[in-house]
């Protein structure tokens, strides 16, 4: 992505993890968590999905919350093609999980991979004892935001500036932003 990032990032929250559906994938794809040797594939997915390079060791596995079962992949055969992290950031509270680094290769667009891998991460958060989930995203990640809305996330827009940014995002989605959004 070459889009300009606006800060702070947009925040979305799903207030409960108790009512999550089952993960459903296209017949030829599988779901699994991280295993040694996936580092390069994770970096490649992140580079292609976000347009910036991240080193897996520096950005993920060196984090005190890292466990292999908290990094999820959708795979085509053995090859990871989408990823999401079931993360935790103390600033959101003990009961709150953090959906982290959701990305997929663009050539797999339209297959629901972001939805499926995010759902797998959220199920992991529930297993880890989290009761709700939050994420941060960028204004220009319109397909991702559409997926997050389908997953039951709601925008947090506590300031006039954030409300205007969310109105713009919702217009891009051909939706109306307002109370209860």
Automatic annotation (TrEMBL):
Domain N-acetyltransferase: 29-176
PROSITE patterns linked to this entry: GNAT (PS51186)
Record field: transmembrane: none
Source superkingdom: Bacteria
Gene3D superfamilies: 3.40.630.30
One matching Pfam family: Acetyltransf_1
Protein's name according to its UniProt entry: GNAT family N-acetyltransferase
Organism: Paenibacillus sepulcri
């Amino acid at each position: 992505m070459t889009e300009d990032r606006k800060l702070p990032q947009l925040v979305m929250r799903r207030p409960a993890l108790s009512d999550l559906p089952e993960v459903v994938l296209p017949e030829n794809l599988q779901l699994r968590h991280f295993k040694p040797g996936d580092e390069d594939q994770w970096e490649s997915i992140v580079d292609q999905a976000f347009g910036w390079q991240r080193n897996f060791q520096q950005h993920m596995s060196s984090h005190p919350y890292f466990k292999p079962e908290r990094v999820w992949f959708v795979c085509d055969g053995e090859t990871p093609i989408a990823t999401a992290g079931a993360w935790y950031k103390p600033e959101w509270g003990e009961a709150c999980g953090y959906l982290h680094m959701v990305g997929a290769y663009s050539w797999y667009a339209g297959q629901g991979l972001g939805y499926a891998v995010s759902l797998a991460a959220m199920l992991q958060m529930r297993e880890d004892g989290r009761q709700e989930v939050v994420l941060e995203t960028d204004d220009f990640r319109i397909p991702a935001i559409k997926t997050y809305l389908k997953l039951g996330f709601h925008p947090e827009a506590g300031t006039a500036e954030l409300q205007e940014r969310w109105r713009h995002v919702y217009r891009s989605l051909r939706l109306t932003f307002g109370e209860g959004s």
